[in-house]
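All the exercises in this workshop are built on plain-text protein records. A learned vocabulary of local backbone shapes supplies the integers on the structure line. Once this layout is familiar, the rest of the handout is easier to follow. An example says more than a description, so a record of this kind follows:
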Amino acid sequence: RFLEQFKPECHFFNGTERVRFLDRYFYNQEEYVRFDSDVGEYRPVTELGRPEAEYFNSLKDFMEETRAAVDTYCRHNYGVAESFTVQRR
């Protein structure tokens, strides 16, 4: 039995002044490829991730969407959740 997971993460610094988006892929609890918005492309974490990184990076529309995730996913969701978290302090 094998398990594959992906985990999108948003890291916020000083509210939304600085945002970092990570899109991490795991196979059997081992990360094998990752997108880091600070880098701007997918990078292999293990040799298993090399073909996946090359494939993802070759998809122009997919990469545009992934690079935009800092705004479309992270900042958007920060705004939605802000009223439930940050403002309740």
User: Anything to note?
Assistant: The two ends are 44 Å apart (CA to CA).
